Structures are given as structure tokens and as C-alpha cells.
Amino acid sequence: MTRWKPTTCMRCAVGCGQLQRGTDTGYGVGDVQGDHRHPTAEGLSCERGIRETKDPRGEWLTEPLVRRGDELVPTTWDIALGTVSAELLKATADDPDSVAVLGSGQQTNEAAYALGKVARGAIGTQYFDANTTLCMASAVTAYYRAFGSDAPPCTYDDIPEAETHVVWGANPAVAHPVLYRWILDSAADAGSRLVVIDPVESETSADADRHVQPEPGTDLVLARAVLAQVIEDGAVDREFVDEYTEGFDRLVESLPDVDTAAETAGVARATVEELAAAFDARTLLYWGMGINQSTHGTDAAQMLLNLCLTTGNVGPGTGPFSLTGQANSMGTRVCSSKGTWPGHRDFTDADNRERVAEAWGVPVDTLPSSTGKGPVGIVDEINRGHVDVCWTVATNPVAGMPNATNVERALDDVFLVVQDAFRSETVECADVVLPAATWGETEGTVMNMERRISRVTAVSDVVDTVRQDLDIIAAIGNRLVPGLFDDPPLDPEGVFDEIRDLTAGTPADVSGVTYDRLEAERAVRWPAPDETTEGGYRYHDDGSWSFPTDSGLAHFLPASYRGVPEPTDPTYPLLLITGRRAGAYNTGVRNDDDTVPNARIHPETAGQYIDVVDRGQTVVESRRGSVTVTLTPDDSIPTGAIWLDIHNPVVNELTLPAVDPDSNEPNFKQCAVRLSLPDQSSPVTRDGVVRSDTIGDD
């Protein structure tokens, strides 16, 4: 095998360092292990990250494909790129917003930046987004509203210092095993504890000192109740609130009666009192998709920030810590021009627009004035006939977005370009397929959830008919705007230098990070404005606080509860809850997981539906689709609910495309469903069109 080479795991956003080496013959990664020199995990790694890096089980894309009738057939790169460029030029000439581009948290910083440069600077479309909006947008929006900037203030260094660890709407034992080990180690210290808030009993709640199970969809209600209890108990950090925040009195006036809110959330008043008391100690508050993926996601995340600010749990060893799923979700936000210009430059600020246009060598009028409507909004625009061409990169919206059948139908109606490393449900809809390199074949950088930048490296070549993401994007960009990039193949280091230059002086300053520095230090946390410093706990310096808001103060903001967007009723009496299971992630393209989903249901609830179970299988139906499942009684699931693995590629046949009004993040977590016999499930219609292609009809 080749020599060991340091890299970063691309499985989740913990950002563990790995050592990898290529195979002796052919292509691919031959072996992977943890890197003890990497400062993030110091040699720790999870089995899933090792396995999916070394031996992904998906079907690799090995040559460009073009649609001929009903088939995708092999073609040349010249024909593929020429076809794509011709369609983009034609659409852009009519209206830049007739093109949609969807990126991914699986891209490197360099590829994400290049894709944004093409989407915003060459095409000029507002309809550019990434699948990171499907998981982190609500947390990001809450951070901006409270602190004036994206990303958690705390770092992994704070985990050992915390005395109380509150995990709300997340299952890090499954989703982030290495980070979870640090949480467990800290919670095991004398006087420390782990509190889990989740409607479902999970691998994480099994380790908890206290597990609180609110009614599904009521996290915002419970958080408001806890905050009201904190205030009633007199546990407010008045010095911090008075000196470094604003809006507290307005927040207090908006809070509910504790007893009423507790009843709505389905918990006892004593439980609310216990949760409020938990914040008396140094507390780290972690949350995940159970908070974010909701029509109340931003408000719920904001209320968690309010809890930390009110109790003075903002500072070393404490604070709000959103748990990120995709490996480079943060890098996509910092670099890609998705919601801000590089470095978190405000999108509408005239000086920022001039600066970006000058750096890219494009007219400032080319840049769109709006960041767009999010991935669900892009699908809506396709259905309205406003989008003619869609280009997806390292993402699988046909399986990963809510109401997946509607997404598939929409993408069938446009000229679809799919750039990916593996065959997916979205590939099957494509008009042109561009095969891209993947882990172990790509050079670049990524950012983990605590803001650390580190390298990803290549230990294997690719076959001649596969190209780097960065080179594919640049080739298309240069056909749209000659000279937008150097001629491919590009040097990723040169692209990273562009990112460094554009982020200098911004809240997400990475100008002091170089490839040479990353080779020496393995990872560097931003902001890093020079080559000797790196970021620590944000907004805090020598006991003083300053937030990048207009006033320099952190903001309290109130919120009200509006109920779940699709409550159960006599026709659809069960509540679907989605979650993660061990061994699976994203839409499973690296796992080749096409098995029948396993639905977990409380034995008491299962007993009420025994007449619609046939040999252990039933059909779960929502107003959008139906899916055949294997039914497993499990008393860890609340009564009246059914749990499905969000990573199975058919589960989003069922989920609801309602979005948070502030973040555009979809409500994946709750929708109304019913059960029926596999051969008797009724056709589900949308806009009068009978849907007949569900798993349940196979």
C-alpha cells in the first residue's frame, strides 16, 4: 500500500482526523485509522466513519451519462459538458432565475466556493442553495438573531469543563459517537450529569441521569416553560443580562404560565422545575434535528439561546452548541455564497457586493439581490414553471427532501444535471450525469462544527472518466464566463487562497490559515486573522463580551407556539417521528441501503392495528405517499406514534414540505399517518393526480 497520509473524516461534522493509504493495485482507499496528531479527536474515530471511508457499498459512477429516451447511456466529457453549458447559457439568457443549483455539505470548501461563484457570479440566480438548509438553517438563523453571527460560540474544549450536559432533540450516541464519548466522560465526573430531552427513548437517553419525554413537536413550549420557571425561581444572571444583552423585559412579558405550558408539553410541573434547576451549574446545551427540523425550528433554537443567556451559561465551559450532521455544513455556509457572501458577509450590503464582484471579475449587477427560498422553495418554483434547468452537486434531493415523490416529479420536468460520485435516486431522473471523485480521491479543506478547518487529501487516483468536483464546476463556469477560473485541473490551494482573501476582516476570517499551516498543525479554528492565532470561545475576551450586532449586545427574542403543521385526526390518527439509526447517514448512497424500512411502534399502539399487519409488514400512509414497512413493537416509542429511519431513501415519500418561515428548513420530524394492509393501501393523490408508484404498490 501507499504511505499513510493525514486527512479528515467526511462522515459527520465532528471532524475527526484520519490517516489513510491507498491500495497496492487499482484505485481506492486501502486502509484508514485515527490520526493521533490531529487536535480534534487525537486518534479517536468511529466504526462508521472508518467503514464508509474505506469500503463504501454504493454503486460508483464511473463515466459521464446522457439521457437518450428512457435510458442513461455513456458519453464523452466534451459532449456532457457541452450539453450542460448549452442548456445553462440558453436558460440564463432568458432569465438567470430559470436556473436552480443545489450544493452540499459533502463538498470541500474549495468546491463549495467555486459552485457559489458559478451560481451567483456566472449564472446570477437567486435559486442557489445546499442540503445544509435541510438540517442547520434554523440553528443558523437563531444564532444570527441572538448573536449577530453564525456558528456556535463554544468549542470541544468546553465539554470537559461543563457540569451539566443537556442534550435536547438529538441522539449523539448514534449521530456523533466520538463527540458523545467526550460528553459521557465529562458527565461521569463527580457532581456532573447528563440530561436528555427527547420524546423517544434513544441510545443517548439510556445513559442519561434524567430523561424527559415531551409530547412530539412541543419542544418550543417546553423551552418557554423552563425559561419562565428560571425567572420565577430568581435564577437569572442579572449582571450578564443587564450589561451584555437587550430585549429581556420583552421576553419575560411574552412567557406563558408554567403550569399551562407544562400541560401542553405533556410533562409535570415538577419536571419543568427540575430542568430549570439544571441550568444552575455550568451547562452546555446541545441540540439537533429534533429542534431544527420543525416549522418552529428557529424559534425553538432561539429559546434555547435565551435559556443560556438568561442563566449566564455563555462563556468557557458553558453555552449553546448545535450539533451538525454533514461533514462540511459549516464550510458550505462560510464559503459558498449560499446565505451570505464568503466570510459571512451580509448578502445585501452594497460594499460587500462590490467586493465580491470585483474579486470574481463579474458585473455587480449579475449578483442576485435575494438569497432565494431554500430547497423546498426551489421545488415549488419548478412546479410553478419558473425553473427550466436544475444542477445538483453531491446531493440526493429525490430521497433527501420532504414529499419526495413531488420532488421527483418536479425534477422530471426540468433539464436535470446531476454531479455525484454514486448512483442515487436523483441520478435516475437526470438528463446528464457528471461522475465526480469522492473521499480519498480529493484534495481540499473542510470545517467541522466547532469551526476547525482541516485538510482532506487524496491517496488514490481516479479512473480517466471521473473528474474532481472542483474541475467539473470550473469547466462549466468557464464556458459560461470565459476566464472565471484558471483552466482545469485547478490547484485547490489557489482556490483556498481566494477564500482567504475574501474572508479577511470578516466574522469568519480564515485569512491566517494556509495549506502549509494545516500541514503543520493539522487543524485551525476560525476566526484566524493571522498565521499565529486561532479562534477560541467567541464574543468573549478577558471577562468582557462583545457581539457582532448593531448594539454590540446579545438579543433576547420572544416566540409563540402555533402547534404542529399537520396534527393527527380520525383519518390519519398516528404521528410519524423520524430519527437516525446507527450505521446509516444522509440518504444512504454510500450504504446501498434499499431494504424495507423498519418502523418502530409502541406495543400498545401496535395492538390496535394488528388487523392491518401481514406477516410482520404493514403500509404507512400520509397525505403524500405510502411506504411498506416492517413493524417492530418497541416500548421506547411514545404511544400513538410511529418511528422511521430518516436515512432510508423511501421514508421521505411521507414527510411534510412545510417549512420554518424564518429559515426555510423543512418540518421532517412530525406528520400525520395511518396504517393499512400492504395490498389494500389507498391511492394517495396530490392536486388530483393519483400517485401509483409507491413502495406499497410494488
Describe the overall structure:
- One of its GO terms (cellular component) is membrane.
- This protein is α/β, with parallel strands linked by helices.
- The chain folds into four domains: 50 residues, N-terminal domain of TfIIb (Single Sheet); 257 residues, Rossmann fold (3-Layer(aba) Sandwich), CATH 3.40.50.740; 187 residues, Dimethylsulfoxide Reductase, domain 2 (3-Layer(aba) Sandwich); 103 residues, Barwin-like endoglucanases (Beta Barrel), CATH 2.40.40.20.
- Helix content is 30%, strand content 19%.
- Helix 2 crosses helix 19 and helix 7 packs antiparallel against helix 10.
- It starts with a strand and ends in a 7-residue tail after the last strand.
- The C terminus is likely disordered.
Keywords:
698 residues, alpha/beta, N-terminal domain of TfIIb, Rossmann fold, Dimethylsulfoxide Reductase, domain 2, seven-stranded mixed β-sheet, six-stranded mixed β-barrel, 22 helices, 30% helix, disordered C terminus, 4Fe-4S, iron, 4 iron, 4 sulfur cluster binding
